[in-house]
Amino acid sequence: MSYEVTIEPTGDVIEVEDGQTVLQAALRQGVWLPFACGHGTCGTCKVQVLEGFADLGEASTFALMEVERDEGKVLACCCYPESDLVIEADIDVDPDFLGYPVEDYVATVESVTPLSPTILGIRLQLDRDMQFQAGQYINLNIPDVGTRAFSIANPPSQSDIVELHVRLVNEGRGTTWLHNELTVGDSIELSGPYGQFFVRSSDSQDMIFIAGGSGLSSPESMIMDLLEQGETRQIYLFQGARNVPELYHREKFEQLATEHDNFHYIPALSDEDTLGEWSGFKGYVNDAVKYHFDGKCSGHKAYMCGPPPMIDATITTLMQARLFERDIHMERFLTAADGTGESSRSALFKRI
Predict the structure, then answer these.
(1) Using CA of residue 299, residue 302, residue 317, residue 240, what is the dihedral sign?
(2) What does each C-alpha distance from 35 to 83, 147, 196, 272, 280 come to in angstroms?
(3) Rounded to whole angstroms, what are the CA distances from 201 to 48, 98, 144, 258, 270?
(4) Could you check whether the bond before residue 34 is cis, i.e. omega within 30 degrees of 0?
């Protein structure tokens, strides 16, 4: 049995199969609905039921309060239709979003390579091509752990490959398994693509990419895609790390900077005790941005990817440098310790 769900204000219509949530069905049919945690605790995917009936599922009372339930609100990640539905969602779909449907894949581990003392590079050969936009991510099904989200580091032109940069998280079951147990030749399942982090290609402004730690993965995919397409706008990559060993792929980007007049690479190291003979920028990556542009970033699009403290500090820097919210895009690298939902969002932004 399946039910038809109409999504307002876009007018998209999806078929929701028995046992599927509204969110699962939408993503697998290439229809974007806002979401974050995916399991009923953050409230990001809250929608209003205008017509029909639905089972609320396991939505937490914190994310969906009793008064909201009485008003007909549901969480798309938890709710199961019990009739045809018409729902209203807070959708702001960017015209540059291509809306590739989420699908399931089986991958074979092609290589496992240490990129830094804490970051592992994993290259997966997919069982078939995946269409995705540079900057999007996949959910990896880790045995005896569950799904974990990782950004795709390779460009979309390599459609049969998924490359991941995985930072070892202290007491993180998923990243510990990947670092210690995953071997070449292993088979692993994943789904994708997910996410709204992508280059706004229709915008003519020059671009600033800011990455911290393994957050380099998405900007690397986006930059490689831009350069492959012959992009002529100016592209700046600011990469932040604690020390030289953590500054992975440095040689790759230095080489790209010599090959492309419009690509500029600015690494920044923050651990004063290990800088030694380092001649590059000394300090946090957001300070490197401020210094390079002399505190004036207007006229650019900014794309940030990294841990929440870096994102929050960089948002403040960019807005002080006269960049508006509409020109700032980001992907936060959250771990279980970081939490999800409103508490993990910058107070400067209505939504991330």
Answers:
(1) negative
(2) 23, 16, 10, 39, 39
(3) 32, 11, 40, 24, 32
(4) no
Q: Global pTM?
A: 0.88
Decide: 263 and 256 in contact? Cβ < 8 Å. yes
CB 290 within 8 A of CB 266: no
Residue range 107-144, pLDDT digits in tens: 999 999 999 999 999 999 999 999 999 999 999 999 99
The pLDDT tens digits for 182-218 are: 999 999 999 999 999 999 999 999 999 999 999 999 9
What letter represents residue 172's amino acid?
G
Q: Which of 89, 58, 96 is nearest to 73 (CA)?
A: 89
Listing DSSP states for 213-247 in one string gives GGGGHHHHHHHHHHHHTT--S-EEEEEEESSGGG-
Residue with the two structure tokens 């900014």: 302
The CA angle 307-125-112, to the nearest 5 degrees, is 55
Strand partners, 111: 123
Q: Which amino acid is at 193?
A: P
Rg (C-alpha) for the chain, rounded Å, is 21
CA angle 114, 117, 122 (to 5 degrees): 25
Cβ neighbors of 66 (< 8 A, separation 6 or more) are none
